[in-house]
Design goal:
Oligomer: single chain
CATH topology: Jelly Rolls
Number of helices: 3
Largest sheet: 7 strands, mixed
Number of strands: 9
Radius of gyration: 15 Å
Structural class: alpha+beta
Strand order of the largest sheet: 6-5-8-3-2-1-9
CATH superfamily: Protein of unknown function DUF192
Distance between the termini: 38 Å
Amino acid sequence: MGRVVFIFILAAFMAPAGSVLWPPPAAAKAAEPFERDVADILTGDGKRHRFRVEIVSTPEDRAQGLQGRKQLDPDAGMLFDFGVTLPVTMWMENTFVALDMIFITPDGRIVNIARATTPESLAIIESAGPVRAVLEVPAGTAARLGVKPGDRVEHRIFR
């Protein structure tokens, strides 16, 4: 019983793109835009790849995430800032776009990448260790750009 309560509390805190919270957050802000910024991925071969990102850092924003979106531009993404370092779980319920989920430590190092996630799936997608953030980009982006664990993401939230 204790594990079930912990998982529910952790899930409510993490609330990723397309997740559902119970009770649902009051008036999810589906139409309201998120904060916009840029983030760069620096690959091991020295290349820099810039993304226009939407920043989500509150439980309500994480609960909304990319839900309901039918497309995501090749240079666009969503950066989930958890504000603390911890193991993270994500899922794709109500998310219609296949994604690459890039799990990132507080210093910007990529720990692992969940490639080509399945839209509308309830399958749990986990970080390979404690992370500060997750960058979601269109499926296939990591392979196309040669992004691998150990590469770095630059954004103001990383030290």
